[in-house]
Amino acid sequence: MTTRRTFLASLPTTGAAFALGGAFFDEGPAMAQGASDPLAGHFHPRGKAPSEHTRRVIAEAAKGLPFDDTRDFEEQARGLIAERSNRKIIADAGNVAFDRAEYDFLDGNDVFDSIHPSMTRIARLNNNYGLYNVTDGIYQVRGFDLSDITFVRGATGWIVIDIGTVRESARAAWELLQEHVGEGLPVSAVIYSHTHGDHFGGVRGIVSDEDMAEGRVEIIAPGGFMENTISENVYAGNAMNRRLFYQYGLLLPVAPHGFVTQGLGHRIPAGSTSLIAPTRLVSEPVEELEVDGLRMIFQNTPRTEAPVEMNTYIPEKRALWMAENVIAAFHNVYTLRGAPVRDPLNWSRYINRALYLFGDEAEVMFQSHHWPRWGNDRIREVLRDQRDLYANINNQVLHYANQGVTINEIHNVYQTPESLQRKWHCRGYHGSPQHNARGVIQRYLGFWDCNPTTLIPKSPSESAPLYVEMMGGAEKVLSRARSLHDEGEYLLATDILDKLVYAEPENADAKEALADAFEQLGYQQENPGLRNSFLAAAYELRSGIPQGIVASSSSPDIIRAMSTELFLNFLAIRMNARRAQGLAFKINLATPDNGERFVVELSNATLTSIEGYQADDADLTLSVNRADLETVMGGEAAFEDLLGDGRATFEGDISILGQLAGLMVEFDPRFPIMPGTGARAEVVTAEIPFKGDIGAVIPE
Ligand SMILES: [Zn+2]
């Protein structure tokens, strides 16, 4: 975290960027050539106002929405016990982890011409910041984190269901609970509903090693929790971290022309994450347990919103916890930061099963994001609608695919049924119908649309120059793009400008024009992931990628949870295979403290490993305790250090280790996405550094 503060201290503040805009940014070519002028008050000196077309799109969108249904606002406000008086949550490292005041601009009834009205609505609903009563003995703290933190009164203490992303928000939630209804009772149990970081990362904020050592706290999770928590984010972790800058808009300041909300909640707090392994796993499809004196029925829902996840019914309170399987929005089938596409039909089936298992009885339904639903009719309405929402996109996208509609067309063809479009809890606040529809085709048919032109095409940078030549050169492309822009045809404008920036990555006019088109598209989106992606690309085209220090805040908890096999597999991904041509060796690796053994072999420029074996003809045999190996896995020590001080021992040709280390590449999350944005360093306007951790927990 020291690294993080050093990084931040090296950057000008947002205010300075406003005051000194001309000094930081060279004179904008778009301005010089008479495109629309920058907007005063926009966070970026070259940011533009919404055009008349964008304002019309937004006004039209408002007409079709069911604003007369205000039940969400009533449910969101119901049961408020107290708001937190301090608007800032300060991280242990001293930075501001979350600042509720940044979202004050949403509190009134202002209409924003740069925000889709439906997004303004969900952003307002996400503006809660306090302790709420759900039903007798159940409380939620909302708005301290991307997710809610839920407290259920047990016989001897508090059962915490999902515990936020960072220790600081968990601790702040605990303090607010204790201030009002906690009665000074301790934490008696923690339940992780699923494997995403915003549901377990805060655990060390309120549970200590002593609590665990003395058996004071039981931690319950679905079977397969640890494996799935870590594995989802390791292999493509650096790419996912980079893509978060688009989906979550990490460089965009909170502002009417920037970041507004993430849909599930507001931002991920900038604090420290943690993980304590579960002490009890729920393995049966439906399993009943007594947790601190309270009867709970767990329903495992594997391969839904997460690889492993579980709903919970508390019969005594007629309370149904739907984890993240049902929220007040359409969730991601395909998640833009990158993840295997989820199975919407399976997801729907588990919601239906919850409806039939608990739907007749439940009087309150609550979950890990947004707010509860009260009354049996309302619960069944939401469960049925959500069941149909996920089944419909699965079935109807495949219905079209079976008639030849491709991944490149489906988002313009598929629509959520009109009756569900009029339900707020089916709006695309996390997954948009468009990108989810493309995800369904990806899941079943993959990336290829079956047109051989797109099967093994030239890379964009190779084919783009021909397009630009055939279109008559850069000036013609720019001129036509500007007229398309003036007509409000922003997607068409991006199509031709994209070719131009690939052909001429240093063409500042092209990048500026593309940024302007992306910005208008961003303003028009209802879905935060789509808005943030367009606005993030506009930001990077205008300013380049900030070149500050890459922060490494890998939680030791996460490293400990990573299997050695997963770590070895990740080494194989980090290895530069071209440099490994012609090399061949076998290494025996043993970790005596946990009794694991591996053969690691380099052959054919490929590193493989197998668990449970030692080779007779190994070139090198290494022995190191797993506990010491973790310092290497976490990047705190090199393997040579362990050999130097005797924590690791060897037999055979130790020079192999140096060869292997020399083949490793450190992934850097600052790689360019848009052409011509990599080597420039201007200004950052949000307090989130780049992170380069393997296995970093990714909230969802
Ligand atoms: Zn979540």
UniProtKB/TrEMBL annotation:
Residues 146-369 form the Metallo-beta-lactamase domain. SMART domains: Lactamase_B. It holds the Pfam family Lactamase_B. GO terms for molecular function: linear primary-alkylsulfatase activity; metal ion binding; protein dimerization activity. CDD domains: arylsulfatase_Sdsa1-like_MBL-fold. It comes from the Bacteria. Keywords: Hydrolase, Metal-binding, Signal, Zinc. One of its GO terms (cellular component) is outer membrane-bounded periplasmic space. InterPro entries: Alkyl/aryl-sulf_dimr_sf (IPR038536), Alkyl_sulf_C (IPR029229), Alkyl_sulf_dimr (IPR029228), Bact_Alkyl/Aryl-Sulfatase (IPR052195), Bds1/SdsA1_MBL-fold (IPR044097), Metallo-B-lactamas (IPR001279), RibonucZ/Hydroxyglut_hydro (IPR036866), SCP2_sterol-bd_dom_sf (IPR036527). Residues 1-19 form the signal peptide. One of its GO terms (biological process) is dodecyl sulfate metabolic process. Belongs to the metallo-beta-lactamase superfamily. Type III sulfatase family. This is Alkyl sulfatase BDS1, metallo-beta-lactamase superfamily.
